[in-house]
């Protein structure tokens, strides 16, 4: 009790002293000026002052508060670490009391002190300003938050961290001071500082508030970003920008990036002829500075401009177009090259606004493909690929043919960087043009095959991609004897040269998978050795995995990518050869191997296994059917949407098996139906998975309507919504037949959501006659059941286009 009484007396005395304004002046005087006292006494005085600030600061007379703040700032470089620490705590406490708005000189002065030659001062600034910032960030006052952020402005390493916080300061952070400082630092002579500042704009561009806070600053920001997109002198040296021909120089191993195979995902075709939009976007869409592997100011500036173009869209163009004209026609190749990069960076975001200028710009860019500087030629390839969609939408002779002709010349360029850029750009053009390229196939193949004998190691791998993409794009049009004779010998030669453990097999296997699918029966003369090698790769990898699992201390884990690419090539063979693959399957143990692969711990292996199972089911079901009892439980276990692509391919395979099994599918419906219904009702499920799930549910209902129809009310709405945008095809046909049969078994199951069924029916462009008749009977049956008056009321809910289509096609 005596101790408590003593403490109480001390606090009571301190409270009494606080009644005298000069007491706090005395405390700061002892802390900062009374250097004859020992350091602990001075520090104690400062800590007492800190407590007074915490409890009574709002009552301090302005003159006292100003004196304390002035003394703190004047003594942050005190030789004593203890005194500096005490002053830091005191400043932090004052800042946390909401006084930054009345202490505007604090952070700017700290900023200036970073230039001090005194070590103690610099150490203090670096150490305590973060404390001040984080302390004030928790304050509810927007003004205090604003001032605290000034600290980030004097610490370049935090520029990119600053932007996300802008969402909390909508009005405050329109501050001229903040953005002006960042604009200055983005032009800093020290490229590291400029890069960190540029990352601020990139991060800000990704924030929802970007458009609101940045609109008024674009006129200053855009020229700065554009200027940052020029190659620096060191960039040009590293990229060997003065070397125009290097095609004979072998690649070093470090030139070649590691390649990773991407397992096959089964997708459906939409009305636009495309697969799932927005999924599977893995393309390397950077400009071609791969040699500059480090993130640099040029790349950051281009990325920021790209993202800003997607935020502001065509509103960015008034700030850009005046600059572009000067850049694109500039006599200095470095400036001209940066202008071409700018044009490519805005291609996605500003595409609509650029359309009026493209008839003039595209020919200019095609001319740039012949520029004497290799770096200009290579960036022109990339930028033109960004506008490939527009090029293909125009009459072929206007832009497509000239662009294709010049790109093919650049594929045979004497500079390896240009070869790479041209190959990649041509692959993009192939994806956009598709069958538009068929008239030029001979010319294209001559060029690509000639490149086989010209390319060094790195670009040869990219060439495989270009050939595979060509096969995907033109499909069966490639199945002509003259084309096969040109293309297959060099591919098979490379195939024979590579050993089983060579990772160059990855792109070659991917390429051959696409070629086999496109050539169909045209691949038959080459199929047996390719098939056998794929089976061997799968078998060897499984054996290595088993040895590793049993004796991990003796064996290395196998690279399962070899097995995955082999499974995908087998899928390509099954899809391309169709029934012709049956004899190959009959002479191999692929079904036994597939059973093991379907249970592999690696999701990508299972993903490719289920794709192959579906393709073999379509091509040679007689070899799959004996395994169904073993396969179906595994498929049911993999209907887990946590592994989207695995689940997608398993779902698709179940649908293919259902069609082949017919009524014999009945014992297996219970294994999969509940999971499928759960998936189709799951929020945020990717569109591809929803579509494949709907197809498979429909196919199960087609072969076993009695078993599936009772669950109709649980899936009919999302089922209809999932399939309304799928183009007419056999998969959609069988699924809709299934839904019609299920409605026949359980008509009440569709009543509540009948409008969605009507909408799905209207999505058909040209259904087969018997399917159209099924739709007709269901629609008229429903109308007759409810009566004319109720039908009229019901149909009033229809959008006009739906109402017109149902009336025209089905008379309801």
Automatic annotation (TrEMBL):
GO terms for molecular function: small GTPase binding. It holds the Pfam family HEAT_EZ. Keywords: Cytoplasm, Nucleus, Protein transport, Repeat, Transport. Residues 274-289 have a biased composition (Acidic residues). InterPro entries: ARM-like, ARM-type_fold, HEAT, Importin-beta_N, Importin_beta. The keyword Transport applies. It is found in: Cytoplasm; Nucleus. Residues 13-78 form the Importin N-terminal domain. Its main location: cytoplasm. GO terms for cellular component: cytoplasm; nuclear lumen. Residues 267-289 are annotated as: Disordered. One of its GO terms (biological process) is protein import into nucleus. Belongs to the importin beta family. Importin beta-2 subfamily. This is Transportin-1.
């Amino acid at each position: 009790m005596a101790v408590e009484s003593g403490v109480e007396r001390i606090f009571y005395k301190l409270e009494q002293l606080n009644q005298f304004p000069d007491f706090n002046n005395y405390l700061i005087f002892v802390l900062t000026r009374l250097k004859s006292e020992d350091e602990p006494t001075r520090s104690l005085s400062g800590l007492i002052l800190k407590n007074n600030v915490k409890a009574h600061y709002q009552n301090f007379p302005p003159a006292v508060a100003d004196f304390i703040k002035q003394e703190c700032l004047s003594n942050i470089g005190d030789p004593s670490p203890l005194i500096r620490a005490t002053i830091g705590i005191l400043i932090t406490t004052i800042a946390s009391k909401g006084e930054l708005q009345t202490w505007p000189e604090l952070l700017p002065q700290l900023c200036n002190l970073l230039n001090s030659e005194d070590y103690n001062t610099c150490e203090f600034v670096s150490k305590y300003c973060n404390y001040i910032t984080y302390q004030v960030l928790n304050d509810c006052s927007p003004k205090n938050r604003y001032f605290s952020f000034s600290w980030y402005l004097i610490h370049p390493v935090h520029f990119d961290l600053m932007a996300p916080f802008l969402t909390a300061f909508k009005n405050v952070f329109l501050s001229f001071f903040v953005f002006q400082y960042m604009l200055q630092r983005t032009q800093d002579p020290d490229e590291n500082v400029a890069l960190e500042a540029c990352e601020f704009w990139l991060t800000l561009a990704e924030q929802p508030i970007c458009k609101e806070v940045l609109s008024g600053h674009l006129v200053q920001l855009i020229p700065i970003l554009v200027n940052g997109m020029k190659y620096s002198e060191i960039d040009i040296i590293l990229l060997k920008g003065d070397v125009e021909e290097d095609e004979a120089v072998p690649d070093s191993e470090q030139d070649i990036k590691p390649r990773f195979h991407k397992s096959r995902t089964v997708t459906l075709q939409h009305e636009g002829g495309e697969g799932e939009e927005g999924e599977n976007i893995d393309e390397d869409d950077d400009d071609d500075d791969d040699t500059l592997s480090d993130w640099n100011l040029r790349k950051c500036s281009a990325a920021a401009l790209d993202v800003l173009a997607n935020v502001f869209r065509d509103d960015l163009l008034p700030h850009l177009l005046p600059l572009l004209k000067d850049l694109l026609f500039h006599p200095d190749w470095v400036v001209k090259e940066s202008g071409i990069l700018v044009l490519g960076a805005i291609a996605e975001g500003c595409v609509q606004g650029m359309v009026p200028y493209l008839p003039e710009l595209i020919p200019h860019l095609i001319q740039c493909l012949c520029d004497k500087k290799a770096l200009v030629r290579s960036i022109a390839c990339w930028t033109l690929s960004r506008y490939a969609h527009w090029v293909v939408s125009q009459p072929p002779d206007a832009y497509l043919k000239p662009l294709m002709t010049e790109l093919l010349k650049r594929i045979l360029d004497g500079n390896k960087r240009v070869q790479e850029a041209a190959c990649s750009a041509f692959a993009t053009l192939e994806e956009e043009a598709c069958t538009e390229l068929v008239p030029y196939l001979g010319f294209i193949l001559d060029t690509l095959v000639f490149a086989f004998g010209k390319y060094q190691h790195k670009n040869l791998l990219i060439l495989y991609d270009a050939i595979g993409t060509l096969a995907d794009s033109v499909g069966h049009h490639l199945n002509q004897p003259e084309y096969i004779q040109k293309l297959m010998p060099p591919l098979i030669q490379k195939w024979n040269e590579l050993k089983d453990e060579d990772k160059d097999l990855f792109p070659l296997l991917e390429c051959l998978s696409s070629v086999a699918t496109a050539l169909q029966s045209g691949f038959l003369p080459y199929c047996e050795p390719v098939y056998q090698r794929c089976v061997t790769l799968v078998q060897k990898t499984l054996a290595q995995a088993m040895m590793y699992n049993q004796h991990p201390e003796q064996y290395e884990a196998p690279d399962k990518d070899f097995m995955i690419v082999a499974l995908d090539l087998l899928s390509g063979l099954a899809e391309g050869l169709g029934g012709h693959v049956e004899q190959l399957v009959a002479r191999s143990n692929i079904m036994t191997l597939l059973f093991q692969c379907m249970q592999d711990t690696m999701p990508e292996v299972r993903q490719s296994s289920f794709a192959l199972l579906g393709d073999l089911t379509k091509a040679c079901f007689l070899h799959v059917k004996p395994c169904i009892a073993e396969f179906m439980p595994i498929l049911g276990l993999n209907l887990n949407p946590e592994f989207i692509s695995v689940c997608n391919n398993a779902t698709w395979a179940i649908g293919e098996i259902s069609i082949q099994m017919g009524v014999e599918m009945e014992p297996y419906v219970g294994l999969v139906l509940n999971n499928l219904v759960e998936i189709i009702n799951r929020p945020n499920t990717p569109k591809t998975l929803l579509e494949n799930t709907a197809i498979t549910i429909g196919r199960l209902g087609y072969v076993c309507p009695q078993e599936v129809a009772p669950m109709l009310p649980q899936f009919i709405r999302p089922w209809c919504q999932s399939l309304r945008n799928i183009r007419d095809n056999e998969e959609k046909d069988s699924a809709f037949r299934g839904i019609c049969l299920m409605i026949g078994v359980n008509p009440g199951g569709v009543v509540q959501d009948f409008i969605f069924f009507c909408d799905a029916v209207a999505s058909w462009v040209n259904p087969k006659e018997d399917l159209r008749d099924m739709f007709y009977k269901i629609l008229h049956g429903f109308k007759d059941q409810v009566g004319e008056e109720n039908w009229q009321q019901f149909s009033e809910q229809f959008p006009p286009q739906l109402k017109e289509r149902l009336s025209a096609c089905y008379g309801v």
